[in-house]
Structures are given as structure tokens and as C-alpha cells.
Design a protein that fits this description.
single chain; 4 helices; elongated
Amino acid sequence: MLLFLKSMVVASLLILVVGLIKPKWICFWMKEPNRIAVSTISILLFMGGMTGIAKLTLKPKERVEAPKQHRSDDANELQLDR
């Protein structure tokens, strides 16, 4: 799965480069292909691939216990013995 996602990221970069030079090669089904459509396709592929890679490879952070709750009486006392 990770190999597929990495291939998708590389393919998106190739699609961007080729599509900016010859948009008709990438958007062959469109009557008038333009560079904006090619850029949109490439950006969506890139974002999808990188999101999938991050989801598969990053480990979730360990939970840190919340600090203990202080009573309101303790919070009002000043520490003057420094």
C-alpha cells in the first residue's frame, strides 16, 4: 500500500510537469484542456498520496496524563518563603 501511495505522489509530479507543457496529453477527454485542470488533478493526487503516506507511517502520540486538579483554596495561597 505504501509503495502504491509513493508511486501516486511521483505520478502526480510527472502529470504536473507533462501537463504544464502539453495539457492535451493529460486531459485527452476534454475538448479544450487547460493547465488549470491539469494542476487541479495533480494537486488532488499529491494531497491524497501524501495524506495516505502520513496516515500509514506516523505513529500517534502517547497520552499524557492531565495535571492534577488543585483546589481553589490552594490556588489562593501565596508562596512567600523563597
